[in-house]
């Protein structure tokens, strides 16, 4: 059975290589037509997609549009800019290279593999695919087996609309992923956890395949005393509890200045009540935990520290209330791994140096949030910490700007995408020098006798 699957995947890759070698995907009008087809397929299936995401995560419609179906906007943005991104770009040449010219040609990589996670199961498959299509690649897609309903709808969309020799979606679990990873690709784009990211990179290394790893981590949210407490609280509560905290860039833990701690926590409590009512279990706007395994992992964190908001659970419905936990020790289990759920631990600091060192003692996060009106402190945070991205006085919203590359640094990932960065991620920038036969300076050719002084002068080494 395993051997059969391997043959199947190597045949699929082979078919895609043949399709790629026809050169069709190099044509910009072909890429635009495929992006339009993708958009059309999403629009025609938007209800089925929404139903599937709802079945997987009980996500409210508003969030399905905001965080999943919005990808059609990225398609429009890409179609608008693709011609200028794909254009060969002339660069300056030094005088001694006269009369040659130098040009960068973006070219597609070939056949790429995209592996996606379950937390935004539609968006995180389609968003990288937009870049892969725009850059002129063939692609094999492997959605998460955990968000099964969305995986099925995605499979249906691709089977009906795309030739598998061009874009193929392969459903399956870890085993399928592992079998696919044995094949040689021209790029692997992986979104998921840091540990699996290491497995993907190891498999890719065997073929010297470049990887983009969109990973996770503990994204801190630091709140300075000089802030607008009410707005800060609202933006933090929204960023943390949207999708029930199952967001790679959710504020993972709160670092709050001791002077405003009480006021901020009171304000966050009020926001949770405003968003989800007295009993969030009854709110139509609150998502559930994806499965029992993650429910149990998260429920175990509720033993750490002192619960000041929420804490209620319902195992049968994979429900964990929006929860805030105070007096959490830095050694507690909840501070050892990415939470990826609706639990916000609170740590108090006395001065910013202390907060910065707590952040810098941990692996570099995917996002960092800092709330402060003080410009010097904002600059200090930017200078003294490293993270994939930063929002000053907000959470999450940086991913909504296509001009900002989205990706991690250190343990939170390798490479980036969104907007033009997606196009670049799936392209090779081919450097080309074009010379003519008009002039042929003899300086570079042997014999070198009598030429060294002139060379030194050109190089500025005399
Ligand atoms: P995961 O790493 O468990 O799974 C992701 C994908 O990898 C799935 O398709 C799965 O089938 C496959 N996979 C799992 N184990 C594998 C193995 N041993 N070998 C090969 N493939 C394997 O991640 P998840 O639980 O689906 O998602 C949660 C993680 O993803 C969190 O850490 C989160 O921060 C991260 N994430 C990151 C981003 C980002 O953009 N940086 C976005 C969403 C989620």
Bound molecules: nicotinamide-adenine-dinucleotide
Q: What topology, given as strand order, has the largest sheet?
A: 10-13-14-9-8-15-16
Measured between the Cα atoms of the first and last residue, the distance is 70 Å
Helicity, in percent? 40-55%
Regions with little confidence, pLDDT below 50 for 5+ residues: none
Strand content: 15-25%
Rounded average pLDDT: 97
Shape: globular
Class inferred from helices and paired strands: alpha/beta
CATH fold label of the largest domain: Aldehyde Dehydrogenase, Chain A, domain 1
> Counting H and I runs of at least 4 residues, what is the number of helices?
16
**What top-tier CATH class of the largest domain fits best?**
Alpha Beta
Reported CATH architecture of the largest domain: 3-Layer(aba) Sandwich
GO molecular function: aldehyde dehydrogenase (NAD+) activity
Pfam family, one: Aldedh
Active site: 214, 248
Keywords: NAD, Oxidoreductase
In short:
By secondary structure, the protein is an alpha/beta fold. The protein has 16 helices and 18 strands. The longest helix is centred in the N-terminal third of the chain and has 20 residues.
Task: Give a description of the structure.
Residues 12-432 form the Aldehyde dehydrogenase domain. It comes from Aerosakkonema funiforme FACHB-1375. The active site is at 214, 248. Belongs to the aldehyde dehydrogenase family. With 462 residues, the chain is an alpha/beta fold. The protein has 2 domains: 2-215 and 413-429, Aldehyde Dehydrogenase, Chain A, domain 1, CATH 3.40.605; 220-407, Aldehyde Dehydrogenase, Chain A, domain 2, CATH 3.40.309. The protein has 16 helices and 18 strands. It has helices at 2-21, 28-44, 46-57, 61-69, 71-86, 123-134, 148-161, 174-181, 194-205, 229-241, 261-276, 292-301, 352-360, 375-384, 419-425, 452-459, and strands at 89-91, 101-108, 111-115, 138-142, 167-169, 187-191, 211-214, 220-223, 253-257, 306-309, 313-314, 319-320, 323-326, 343-349, 367-371, 389-392, 413-414, 427-434. The strands form 4 sheets. The protein has a 7-stranded mixed sheet, with helices on both faces. The longest helix is centred in the first third of the chain and has 20 residues, at 2-21. The model has no long low-confidence stretch (mean pLDDT 97). Nicotinamide-adenine-dinucleotide (NAD) binds at residues 115-119, 124, 142, 144-146, 173-174, 177-178, 191-193, 196, 199, 214-216, 248, 338, 340, 366, 408, 413.
